[in-house]
Amino acid sequence: MARTTLDVGCGIRKYPGSIGIDFNSASAADVLCDLDRFPYPFADRTFDHLRAIHVIEHVTDVVRTMEEFHRLVRPGGRIRIETPHYTDYSSFCDPTHKHHLNSFSFRYFGSNDGGFGYYTEAKFREISVHVKLLAFWKWLGFEFLVNRFTRFRRFWEFYLCYVVRGKAMEFEFEPLGPPVQLRRPSALPPPR
Fold it and tell me: How far is the C-alpha of 147 from the C-alpha of 129, rounded, in Å?
């Protein structure tokens, strides 16, 4: 059986061999759809992999989008998300960015939900988090420390990140449990 990948918000550089979806007709998308309207036009558990590269910061409802990712990926599959760190210039210089995230922004979907697990029934196992820092800080070894030690990453997020600024973050998740049923409506009103 061929492994299938969904490239969400593929833009003009769709991941090779994937099925691309995007809202923009000038993109390389195979399927045009509004990423803020759910469900996307695919059956439950259709994909082995899902990629959302510099997309999650653009959607209106992060929680509902993660629920949709959870619905689309098979058990044992992988979800890869990349997004700017909120201290990077690129997080705020694009007026289409609706969310500014940090390396703990997806904790609500895991076992360490900080007491806020009631936002959604969609649960994920965090496979990896990788924070990229600006080159100067990487050369000084801060990037290694941030990525090697979760406690240091937490210290960096709380106290140092406005000086030792982040650049981007890469997350990999595995969906857990059955697809969640839609509990909340889409953030946008229904089309007329």
Answer: 7
- Of 63, 50, 65, 60, the closest CA to residue 97 belongs to 60
pLDDT tens, position by position, 86-117: 999 999 999 999 999 999 999 989 887 777 77
CATH architecture of the region 5-132+169-176:
3-Layer(aba) Sandwich (3.40)
DSSP secondary structure letter of residue 77: E
pTM beyond 0.85: yes
Helical spans, DSSP H, in the chain? 62-72, 89-93, 135-139, 142-148, 150-155
pLDDT in tens, 63-85: 999 999 999 999 999 999 999 99
DSSP reduced 3-state for 117: helix
